[in-house]
From TrEMBL:
The lineage of its organism: Bacteria, Bacillati, Actinomycetota, Actinomycetes, Mycobacteriales. GO terms for molecular function: hydrolase activity. InterPro entries: AB_hydrolase_fold (IPR029058), Esterase-like (IPR000801), Mycobacterial_A85_antigen (IPR050583). This is Alpha/beta hydrolase family protein. It comes from Gordonia prachuapensis. Keywords: Hydrolase. The keyword Nucleus does not apply. PANTHER family: DIACYLGLYCEROL ACYLTRANSFERASE_MYCOLYLTRANSFERASE AG85A (PTHR48098:SF1), ENTEROCHELIN ESTERASE-RELATED (PTHR48098).
Amino acid sequence: MANSLARTARRDTGGSRSFVAVITCLAVAASAAISLIGVSAPASAAPSESRIERIVREGPTRLAAYVHSGSMDKTIKVQLLVPRDSDGPRPFLYMLGGLGEESEENSIWLIKTDADKFFADKNVTVAMPIAGNGSFYTDWQRDDPELGRYKWETFLTKELPPLLEARFDGNGSRGISGLSMGAGSSLTLAARNPGFYDSVAAFSGCYTTTGPAGQAYPRGIVSAFGGNPDNMWGPPNDPDWAAHDVLQRSGGLRGSAVYVSTGTGRSGEYDAPGYPGNSNPTDRQLVGGAIEVGSLWCTRNLQAQLDAQGIPATFRYEDPGTHSWPYWVDQLHRSWPFIDAALN
């Protein structure tokens, strides 16, 4: 049953067509409406040494770095986009995907967007790690019998940047961005590591991990891939859930340039029958719309929290806008001037 759910979840790696994502995000939306009117796994082994094993060229401006993670004791493929004019030090932008990757060889960003072409003339090196399914880009408390060892926060903040930025002439300036699951993870990583990222951008995410609604989404996603959510941040009352709640750790975003976008859930041109690549308009309109309503609620709560604390941030609300790739392609383009100003 778990494998069947995982296959269902993999149909859309941004998170818009997963059965579990539908159920859990509808739970978030339901909570918004109301507000408005474990099995343990073996302990982790001692870490090994992190290192770049090899670099492979995949195109004129695309490389692949195979990086051994000491904390996870496995090799992670990280695809890199470098500018055509690559002379001199430059910033790094780390880009996180959604639920899981469609391919073990290519980042979902390269499959679903024009990132390869878009960044070719930009003064930045883009790093796109191909992550494990339902990882939430976080350090799990315990190894999971089905999903293995996840130590993604350690990898993304302590192991990978020093290796890549030394090898590819980083200038010490870095940003992080993500969509759907990766949106919440991007803000979580920035909030938990104050000052590490000069910019952070999040598209169509949710930013609370406490309470029934806040835990429903991550627990549902982990379960969809056959994992035990208690292996991630513990049982529901474990303080580790609050420790990864952006609203509760929002002070850690102070000093970083923050860009957050979401749609309203209302269907638009991209969701219409016959639009290129839209093979299931009903799915995109109903399911993608419902999930984006949940993201809208989460984003409004985040804005209220940052406003209350006087933390500067740019919020963009797209109407129409569903939980679908064409809107994220737009946000990739629209967010770049903001990210560029912070990095350069």
